[in-house]
Design goal:
About 60% of the residues lie in helices and about 0% in strands. The two termini are about 30 Å apart. It has a single domain, classed as Hypothetical protein af1432, CATH 1.10.3210. Helix 5 packs across helix 7, helix 7 packs across helix 10 and helix 8 packs across helix 10. By secondary structure, the chain is mainly alpha-helical.
Amino acid sequence: MNRNEAESLLKKYVKSEKMLYHCYASEAVMRALALKLGRDEEKWGLAGLLHDIDSEITNADPKKHALVAEELLRDEGIEEDVLDAIKMHNEEATGEERTSEFQHALAAGETITGLIYATALVYPDKKIKDVKTKSITKRMKQGAFAAAVNRDNIKECDKIGFTLNEFAEISLNAMKEIADKIGL
């Protein structure tokens, strides 16, 4: 499945503009991580783009979310390791722990997008262009800030070889590159 086909499929199931922004941001972060790690950017980008394809169908029910996504994508020509990463970004549904680099990257990468969004929105112009890496790492320590963001998922960046600071910088820069596409 190519990127355009994946985006069309995503839009078939996801209508919320904010959720689409999240998926685009996750795709950008995953592509940037793949580039830094020497992995397949297309494959990692697809995982980021499609990981929440079932969010509206399941109402993000942690017992179903990602399992339904795997079912939706199974017959769409998506490679098995991409399906696995998508399924495992929600450990609660699977009852298993993430073990692969790809799984950890998607879990951390899609989660940090929420923290970056929330940080950008507290700036006066609500734009990502002025957000600094230091602001992201500072907000990581403030549990009440963007309280729904699972900091433990973000900390999985160390399992793919990045410090929190490096990971935040890669993610922030990836999102800055598509700021207009994600409403920031």
